[in-house]
């Protein structure tokens, strides 16, 4: 370890590598060498002894930590405050808007493809695969990417620019697509993978910039995706109607290039690359996930499997109900998720995440069973979109705190488990919409509801029950995790 380029983040325990006894000895000796030679070091008792150094000569771990702290405080920008921290937050917000917002808006493309040639020759399931593939890669690529990023942190910024190039290539190429399989590659695989490449480094860096305000910062950042989900459905729908599919994709590519370059310029780590030594941090393994953390991952998977079918099929259902501008309900849902994410993020800082995640899923299940199931017009569908956006949309803002809660005994695993929750959500966002597309057949359906009732008009009854059931099971699993955590605490007392 060479000081001047390396500064171990002692006030970020979740980022500090866990050392073996031998590594600890070597690390301490290196620190001691620095202390005795540094002009910033405090005076230490160092009476020479012919028989070797006495115990009073050897700096303690506390001495080392104080010098480390002074060095870090002197050379690094402050945590939880300052222009640099909030500039990073703003840049990451823009990244979420650009690269996660379109995936939240795929319902607009789903509706367009189902009613316009040449893509309307394909089934709803095939078309839905475009969006679910992109979402799955955005969430699911995290395991491999996080492992690579933690081993080679010095290359992250270069990799992010490569991700931007991959995104631009994919969306521009999509403008020439004439079949669904081409869209799966150009609008699904390439943007999904590149969005993960661009965004996952920022999920590592947010733990460097924010500690006490991490939940709030995470909530602010991911509202970028919500704002993208508000603006993009209306904007893309207008462009699709006026310019057509090909030129819509080209205009969007140009916009992403300009704003994306600016965002990547300001999205920087707080610590220098040398501070995150290669191989110093634990790499994800499924054994790690199953050591008491599986419940949170399973709850996230089930919540995603229930949440994403709503974002995919909500405009289609609105169109079936005769709403002239069906994309407005998707925009309302995404707009409502902004205060939901901010609120749940702040609450998780104050009260923890485990119980709040279960409450979010339970309330979302009630909304799916009732408001979504009995929706018969614009008023009920808007009410559902508003409430569901606040309650279900805020779920993912609690992940940062959830990873911290799950790793209270092993804080070095926080970034790893954060990525594990992304992977679980990625699996859910594939499984949920694909199964939902098999259950929901809007084309050719009548206004009759389930078994001739008023529940689930236009064959949406089974879809409502499917969504509500997944969210209810997610709440039960999350509640089991909360009870398990309480039992563990009582056992210690």
UniProtKB/TrEMBL annotation:
It is a multi-pass membrane protein. The keyword Repeat does not apply. Its main location: membrane. Residues 58-67 have a biased composition (Basic and acidic residues). The chain crosses the membrane at residues 126-149, 156-174, 180-204, 216-235, 247-267, 288-308, 328-344, 351-372, 378-395, 416-440, 460-483. Residues 43-57 have a biased composition (Polar residues). Residues 43-67 are annotated as: Disordered. GO terms for cellular component: membrane. Keywords: Membrane, Transmembrane, Transmembrane helix. It is found in: Membrane. It comes from the Eukaryota. Residues 292-493 form the Major facilitator superfamily (MFS) profile domain. One of its GO terms (molecular function) is transmembrane transporter activity. PROSITE patterns: MFS (PS50850). InterPro entries: MFS, MFS_dom, MFS_trans_sf, Proton-linked_MCT. Belongs to the major facilitator superfamily. Monocarboxylate porter (TC 2.A.1.13) family. This is Putative MFS general substrate transporter. It comes from Moniliophthora roreri.
